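REVIEWER CHECKLIST
Item 1: Sequence provided? yes
Item 2: Single chain? yes
Item 3: Sequence as submitted:
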Amino acid sequence: MSISRSGRFALLLVSAVALAGCGSTVQSKGQSNAGTGFSPDILTTSPATPTTGDTTQGGGAVAPGVLTPTTAATAPAAAGSVASSPSTTSGNTVTSTVGATATQAATTTTKTVTGTIIKTVKPTVPDTGRGWDKSYVYVGVVTANDVNAVAKQLGLKSIDGGDQEGEAKAMVDAINANGGIFGRKVKLVFHDVKGNDVVQTPETVAAATCQYYAQDHPVVAVLSPVGGIDTANFRSCLVKNKIALFSVNTAPQDSSVGQANAPYYYQMVSPTWNSFAPTLVTTLRGQNYFTGWNTATNSAGTAPVKVGVLAGITEQSVRVGNLVASSLKAYGYDPLVYDNDPKDFTAAVLKMSGSGVTHLIIPDGAQSLFMVTAATQRYFPRYGLSSADGPEAVLAYNIPAAVLHGSMGAGWSPSLDVNDANDPGDTSQAETTCKSIYTKAGFDFTGRRLAEAVAYSYCDGLRIISEGATAGVGLTPLAIYKGVVTIAPTWKSALSFGSGLTPTHLTIPGAVRPFAWVDSCTCFRYTGTKNITLP
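Item 4: Structure as written out by the authors:
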């Protein structure tokens, strides 16, 4: 019941690149930028603190804190504009009031690839701006194409991120066939990073990636499924250069990350733990998770329930760990919270087992690495999971079934949570449309849940960028943000249950379902058929 050292490294690589970026890649508590070779200011090509009237990016460039999500939602697009809610909806039609005045009504109609009708004022977008010209709108897409090869070489199963460039291109082809954005075609600007570099020197990779899009190849937005580079420094650099980041990163975050970077940061595939932590604990209680457990036999037992929360070593990860602990305390549990560098779980296993922890929650999405280490020491706590762990996409194929026995959790993405046979069906019309687009392009995700999740994240990300720009009647980060707020009430996700988008909550997953490991099929299944809306 062990995995080789190389296999452990591969799991770390997958966690850092394809799933979460294990918390060690973000600035640690008290850590400064000194010695990292990374200075966001070096890449800043415009004033560090622009005002809402800054037009250095073609209009609408703002700095975080200058314009908060709440004020941005209602800020007038131009002098004399009507102060009202950003949109009205009727059936499948969204009418945007962005830029509308008493004499200029929303008369231009655009039909999205999913069939939603967006009505706006007539767009008056400058011929050129940061990330666009007369013919194209440029969107950056970060890839890690070597993950599949490394996983295959090391014998890991199901670690298949798919044809990342091909999947993104297929979605853009559909958007362009539908008219593009303001008559311009969307052109993807790919930047590939090496998985080993992301694990070993994430800040260096992050700095190079930001420079690539800030100086070498300007874009209106960056879509990144490489969680390992989604660090505080990377986000800060993109914000300073007024580039919106649509992050496909399941690493745990609290609401402060989005608030600090609004309106330049969107969490595409993971909810904030301010809302998820209490829901996770409630869902686990509803499944009778907190019952006696024998950590030597990995089965029901008589030992008193002792809950552990294993956080990473970063400020962000520690905050999330505390959110989980607070949610547990609300139900009378006294959890042991331990901060651990996810590159080595030996000390964490000794701490948890030595403290009598019977039930363990690891928000950092590094469950697989802990499980491997714990199993070698014959320690089998009952695990509380989430979609961030890739229950089916990663754990079911690479962790022994005996270790997963008794584990359960709450998940927001069927592609990550369950296998094909247990998929509950399309989460929305968006998934139906995205699936059709990929099928027509020749993609088959049968038995490839991680590849499907990555593809759906591209579909969600590229749709929200194009539809946000359309509804916001512009291509600047502020225009896209106003558009996202406009379409939020009706926007649907292909990857996730529900949508959590609001003017102050730029996070896609908005609902979860309970799931559990089933011994008879050696797989995970949802144990409920109704969505649980996140607060």
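Item 5: Key structural point noted by reviewer: DSSP finds 18 helices and 19 strands in the chain.
Item 6: Recommendation: ____
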